[in-house]
Amino acid sequence: MHIGELAKSAGASRKAIYLYEELGLIQAPLRKGSYRVYAPETVDQVKTIKCAQSLGFRLKELVLRNFRHIREGCAGCWSRSSIAQPSQVEI
Domain range for residue 9? Predict the structure, then answer.
């Protein structure tokens, strides 16, 4: 799927998806010419990132803590009781 379809399906902006890719939170997509082609599981990965943010995690924290669950599409695993608490300190 192309970035517009991914953005619509995951409820994120194109800019956010580019940022997640740049930070390594989602896998870099395949290329067909100048177009990025994302795998279908990327929708769940982006939703997981958004969920983590809604729980108080910052993107920098996700990168620093290297949450591999995001790439594995573990959308249901984010809860305050099942993972480390978000930091209360600015990063």
Answer: 3-77
